[in-house]
Design brief:
alpha+beta; 4 strands; Glutaredoxin; Thioredoxin-like_sf; Grx-like_ET; Glutaredoxin_subgr
Length: about 90
Amino acid sequence: MSAKVIVFSTPSCIWCKKAKEYLKSINQNFTDIDVSRDIAARNDMIRKSGQEAVPQIWINNIPVVGFDLEKINRLLNLYNTKKGESNG
């Protein structure tokens, strides 16, 4: 079963770009939502996670705030993790 992945991002966010590039590099499909344009999605993201920060990568409805590669890989059931790529 494939994971449902949603990336909440903004165009100016460097870590958002890195997160999306990583997901593409592992052939993971995802929906990208630009919260600078979609205010309803932004408000929903904040309501559900309690966080305003982007990127937020939601994997099967579990939020990952920031580009936390270890958590992303764990939630995607990937165990060959690249070390050192994380913004906290």
